[in-house]
Specification:
Layout: H1 2-19, E1 38-43, E2 48-51, E3 63-66, E4 71-73, E5 78-81, E6 92-101, E7 104-117, E8 132-133
Length: about 130
């Protein structure tokens, strides 16, 4: 009987050890989550576009980059124009935003449409009374 119990104990021990998860989990890269193109509308003359954040489940630092040289992105994921957007010159801007670290990278596509203004930017006047149309 003791031999039978020892055999059962040995079999259970082998089963438990073989089923345990001894694999190390690799560092994973950041993710923007659900992948759908991001579309924003910005008023003519405004440089603010928006914030685009990725998440890293390992808590690692995330580095951001953007493909369009007319735009920039901060380490906090804030995207802005480096130019003053003018509807009459270009009414749509596109870019690819990349979030990366040692674990990998992720990308999203960004399209920014410029809303036309009834005000023109040929003077240094303030535009408090401008009307924007979509």
């Amino acid at each position: 009987m003791i031999m039978k119990k020892s055999l059962y104990f040995l079999l259970i021990l082998i089963f438990v050890v073989s089923c345990s998860d001894n694999e190390t989990i690799d560092n994973q890269g950041p993710s923007f989550g659900y992948h759908v193109d991001r579309i924003k509308r910005v008023n003519e003359g405004s440089t603010d576009i928006g914030t685009f954040l990725a998440q890293d489940i390992d808590g690692d630092e995330i580095n951001y980059s953007i493909s369009n040289t007319d735009m920039s992105i901060t380490s906090d994921g804030i995207v802005a124009f480096n130019i003053i957007p003018d509807y009459e010159i270009k009414d749509m801007h596109t870019a690819v935003i990349t979030a990366s670290n040692d674990g990998g990278s992720d990308e999203i596509n960004l399209t920014v449409y410029i809303n036309d203004s009834l005000c023109e930017f040929s003077t240094a006047a303030t535009f408090d009374n401008c009307i924007f149309s979509e």
